[in-house]
Amino acid sequence: MSIIFQYRNGKKIRQELLELDKVRQDNIEYDLVLKAMKLATWHIDCQARTLTFDADFREGIDNYYTAVETSLDLLPDLLVPNDSQRVMSALENMISGRTMFYNQQYQAKGMTPGQIYWEQSFAMVADRDADGMPTKIVGASMRIDEQKHMETALINARNRAEESDRLKTAFLANMGHEIRTPLNAIVGFADLLPVVESDEDRQQLISEIQMNNHKLLQIIDGLVSMSKVEAEAKSLVRAQTDIVPILKEIADNCRTLVDGETVKIVTQFPYNELLVNTDADKLREAIDNLMQNAIKFTDHGTITLGFSLAEGDRVRISVADTGKGIAPEDQQRIFERFIKVDDYIPGTGLGLSVAKSHIESLGGKIGVESAINKGSTFWVDLSLM
Length: 385
Known about the structure:
- By secondary structure, the chain is α+β, with helices and mostly antiparallel strands.
- It is 46% helix and 25% strand.
- The protein is built from eight helices and 13 strands.
- The protein has helices spanning 2-37, 75-78, 81-95, 145-192, 199-231, 243-255, 280-296, 351-361, and strands spanning 39-45, 50-56, 70-71, 101-109, 116-128, 134-143, 239-242, 263-268, 275-278, 301-310, 314-321, 365-371, 375-383.
- Strand 4 (101-109) and strand 5 form a beta hairpin.
């Protein structure tokens, strides 16, 4: 009997050891899953209204509040105000038995001052009392910052694509009108030339034809420039370049596009020579686009092209006008492609975008300072070296 008793007792002990090993193995696998998913597990004591973290494998553990038996009344202070009411309402619904499951995304405050992180939590009722009311809720939380960043990036990319598509559609619809207007003027005035007898009238028609030729060339040049920028077909060729002759040439060409009385082109060059290590063609095209833009939006007054030396061996080239000015909300978007703040002014909406692309490829910066009805000053900062 003693032998039989010992045998049975040993068998029982071996069975218990096997079950203990199985539990230990299950715990190891459980921890492995939590670590792999970077989860934190917690439970809520519904009667004591406390939250306790059982395990926490989130990254940067020192940045989270994981105190034992944290009062639920303190949770709103740990969440971003915009999310706290929604999250607490969902938890109260579970505690009161109105819902069985919980799934919320929210922003929480970290231990580091100013730290905000995104988190998603899942929970369900684990135990109830005799009346069916929840006594214990178990849940898990995980960081979702990367997911939120990806969502934001995708939304922004989609919005940019939709906006670009809308602008391109408007651009193509408008391009026929932009090209046809100067072309009709050229053809019409050219047809009149053979029948005009007065030399003064003939010269006036020739001037109109030349002006519209220039407008048409501007439109085509803008399209070609943007195509080159998009295709990166125009390589950067830097060389020591005297920018004063380039700026003088641009100013002289622009004087032929204004009457010289209601609108005057003036220059402010403090030096007769200034060497800059740059791509002359890109610089010329960028500044010319800024001057053309000033001419379009200036009905009277002056357009001033000048430069000055700034700190750090840099030069600032500026185009200042006395035109209609630009609203603050439009001062950044005007450098985007196909943007036209005034649809009644002829143009493709590409000039400033081309200028920005060229200046940035030269390692410079471009910007604008403007006020409505007080004119605008477009500036370009470039390194001398």
